[in-house]
Amino acid sequence: MNTTKPDLSEPKSYGGFYTHEDIKELVQYAKDRFVNILPEIDVPGHSMAALASYPELSCTPGAYQVNVGEKFMEWPGPRALIDNNLCAANEKVYEFLDKVFTEVAQLFPFEYIHMGGDEAAKNLWEKNAAIKTLMQKEGLKDLHEVQSYFVKRVEKIIQSKGKKLMGWDEILEGGLAPNATVMSWRGMKGGIQAAKMGHKVVMSPTDFVYLDYMQGDPITEPLVYASLRLNQTYKFDPVPAGVDAKFILGGQGNLWTEQIQNLRALQYMTWPRGLAIAESVWSPKEKKDWGSFVQRVEKQMERMDIQQVKYARTMYEPVFITSYDKDKNIKVELSTEVQGMDIHYSFDESHPDQFYPKYTVPLIIPKDALHLKLITYRDGKPAGRQINMPVEELKKRAERNKK
Questions:
Q1: pLDDT tens digits, 101-110
Q2: Which one has a higher pLDDT value, 31 or 67?
Q3: 103: left (phi over 0), alpha (psi -120 to 50) or beta
Q4: Half-sphere exposure (Cβ direction) of 199: Cα atoms closer than 13 Å
Q5: Could you tell me if 171 and 88 are in contact, meaning their C-beta atoms sit under 8 angstroms apart?
Q6: Would you say residue 174 lies in a domain?
């Protein structure tokens, strides 16, 4: 996390913009492949870039700059340390958005425009005199209703361009705009609620389809705040029980790129979990079968090898469950997502292969061990990467699981 503000004289190494010609080229590229692009302009939060150019659109006066890594939000919350919200009580905001959405609507032929609506910290709105005046004038009981007021006005702007509004599930808070479509990311609860209210929904829950999450054990992956393994992604069902399927437009996998370093890293995070999402949204639930899916994933891996596409092989690597036994020894239970894997291990700092002990029962970690080293084999050949798990890490996990 960078904690220093940028030197405005230094060369710009990140950012930029799309020209109209860039967008037209992207839209045509997608159309040629039977894909529609859904544009998102995330408001009222996530608007630091707009405020850097138009600080008068904030409820908090001052100079703004595009964030390059310094902390500006506190979680859980969110609670803003630096205001990145457009001001719902400022009429200039709606004039600005009218111009923005006019341009977006002209460039993107898709019927929807996504207005975001997520992670809008309201603690700085709470102190603002203009917001308080707006609440009195419009009879708004709390800040959720202030955001709802904002969303409803944005919906009218988007509809005036001949488009339909879509937003993240936070737009449910304070009252949903009349014709809004909800994209549910904080689990499926918001989508279920919206569907039962008669609104269209796209399911995009973190616990199944967030491709920026780690897909193997954290000890083997670039550290992100959560994990999502392939077999969990494959369990995704965009039409939950008790919901009329006619309100579910489909599902979406999300790969947020603020922690993706380059194109090869992007490929690694997408595949093979992207295949699991595709099958979950395009195949009848009753035809889904994990064993069959794994075999087909392996065929796709052969194709990706030929195409030199990077992908994760973490489905072959063990899953750890760590605890203490009755004698306060660290106990490790191991399992694999894919059937037919043999797990071989060592405690003596040497590198295990198929001639090392095979895991059959939970392991008790020897007192003098520094690492538990593991590798999976199938049919006499290595399947996953060797994992060198520090005993100190196992101890931390056992402590967490004890709580």
A1: 999 999 999 9
A2: 31
A3: alpha
A4: 27
A5: no
A6: no
Between 10 and 74, the more confident residue is: 74
> Does residue 185 sit in the same domain as residue 100?
no
Q: Say what the pLDDT of residue 69 is.
A: 73
Could you tell me the CA-to-CA distances from 87 to 92, 118, 119, 284 in Å, in that order? 9, 15, 15, 45
Specify whether 23 is located in the same domain as 133: yes
In a domain, 232, yes or no: yes
Question: Of 313, 347, 371, which residue constitutes the final position of a domain?
Answer: 313
105, 254, 277, 316: CA torsion to nearest 10? 160
- Residue 175 belongs to some domain of the structure: no
Q: Mind listing the pLDDT tens digit for each residue in 14-48?
A: 678 899 999 999 999 999 999 999 999 999 999 99
- Asked if residue 289 and residue 380 are part of one domain, the reply reads no
For 24, other C-beta atoms within 10 Å of its C-beta total 13
Give tens-digit pLDDT for 176-196.
999 999 999 999 999 999 999
Radius of gyration from C-alpha coordinates of the chain: 25
Residues 199 and 151 in one domain: no
H or E stretch covering 160: helix 143-160
- Evaluate whether residue 167 is within a structural domain: no
Q: Give the CATH number of the domain where residue 294 resides.
A: 3.20.20.80
CATH of the domain at 350: 2.60.40
Distance, in Å, from the CA atom of 274 to the CA atom of 66, rounded to the nearest integer, reads 31
Number of structural domains, the chain? 3
CA distances from 141 to 59, 121, 136, 240, 344 (A): 19, 17, 8, 32, 61
Domain ranges, residue 213? 180-313
Q: Which two tokens stand for residue 132?
A: 């308080």
Mean pLDDT on 286-315: 97
